[in-house]
Amino acid sequence: MSKKKRKVTKKKNRRVNKRKIRYDRVAICVLLFVLVGYLFYMILNKPISNIYVYGNEFLKDQYIIDEAGLRNYPSTLTFSTSKIARTLEEDPFIKKARVRRTSLRGISITIEENKPLFYNQSEGETVFADGKTVKEKYNAPLLINYTPNKVYKQLIEALNEVEDDVFDRISSIKYDPNDVDSGRFLVSMRDGNYVYLSINKFTEINNYIKIIRKFENKKGILYLDSGEYFKVMEG
After folding, report:
1. Per-residue pLDDT averaged across 132-140, rounded?
2. Which of 91, 158, 206, 221 has its CA 20 to 30 A from that of 75?
3. Where are the beta strands (DSSP E) in the chain?
4. Residue 235 pLDDT > 70
5. d(CA 181, CA 200)
6. First CA to last CA across the chain, in angstroms?
7. Residue 145 in 3-state DSSP?
8. Closest Cα partner for 171 from 184, 149, 186?
């Protein structure tokens, strides 16, 4: 056999060895892929069924859900967890927010609250724990007079350290320095007592409930700026 004939034979063999494309199998694979994708889409397109809220104390669950834009329990395809977190953090009452999916139709929201510390009467604004301010007046102690900037910042830091059960008893705060102490405050309590405090020892007010119990509901002035002395008011 000549060399030319051998070459033709090899070429024919290569053609015979080529695998045939099974279009029926390809069609089945494509159909299954589309079907699975459609089913997955239908599952995700269903509304959220469970929303869990964590970390809140004074904010109601429904308030947080509304602020997150989830009041009507939208489809899980229509929201982004990171976008919801950013939206929540724009609220002055929320310091930080973390949002994650717990299942295909479940979501959890964990927040760190940003409570109002006081209403600054001089500026006409509410001051929050992180220093943010808003013009609205919320339920918080009243800072009734001007306070120098340095002491003012220290006051915000100090009030963040006051325990909730004592903080809730504070009615108003007055900057009341004397010749000895430029960081002195007079705090009016909702039970009718008064407390003098130095900004450097402001957290001494956390002992208020324990101290005041010793005086059997008598009203007076508690001096915590220079020791621990209670002066009973006459009448």
Report:
1. 91
2. 91
3. 50-54, 94-103, 106-113, 116-120, 125-128, 133-134, 142-143, 170-175, 184-189, 194-198, 220-223, 229-232
4. no
5. 10
6. 134
7. coil
8. 186
